[in-house]
Design brief:
Oligomer: single chain
Number of domains: 1
CATH superfamily: Nucleoside phosphorylase domain
CATH class: Alpha Beta
Number of strands: 10
CATH topology: Rossmann fold
Shape: globular
Order of helices and strands: EHEEEHEEEHHEHEHEH
Amino acid sequence: MTLGIVSAMHEELSAVLERVQARPMEWAGRTFWHGHWHGVPVVAVLSRIGKVAAATTVTTLIHRFEVDQVVMTGVAGGLAESVQVGDAVVADAFMQHDLDASPLFPRYEVPLYGLSRFGVDARLSGRLMQAAQEALSQADWPAALGELNARALPRLHTGLVASGDRFVSSAEESRTLRQAVPDALAVEMEGAAMAQVCHDHGVPFAGVRLISDRADDSAHVDFMRFIRKVAAPVSAAIMQGLVQRLA
């Protein structure tokens, strides 16, 4: 069973690539690192940013590299009041907050699917949750969190993640999105597209996001610093815990 690991940015995946014994392969404008991790066949790739880039990347993973399951890791902005910087969110569903084909279809519904939300694979997601909980409990980065005014003891959440081709980075935008989709825990730019592609191909999918900011006026200030100091090493720890459970 080959596992595809996807992040949008190099900084999000850098610590994973340091641990995977893999060789790079160029295909469709992407670099795919194909190898093994704890004996599990793995293909890691940077999707780049946005829903279209994410969809084309996962499609290539499935068809060119024949992965059997896909997991997404990276960062997101927190929406729900309970979701704070430093926390992790394992998605139980994804939706596109910027999709509106009304009046032909209800707002947020993907045309001709009859769905506005795409779920995750329960088994893969369960293992991802176990790996995330373990990583959060063992993480050795309280100093970095303190520098970023993050929660001293990060929490694990599970729920809806909203995706859109927009970096939500103002208090007004965040408030509007919370009012429109009150059960969304976090917002990012790729997950819903990956979930839809995996749904189309019958490939198990799961995703975890580390909360880098509150999707408000401070998002641009904290974003890259959080990725370097917290998200990269913690994402690698989560992915390592996942592959150990898949071995």
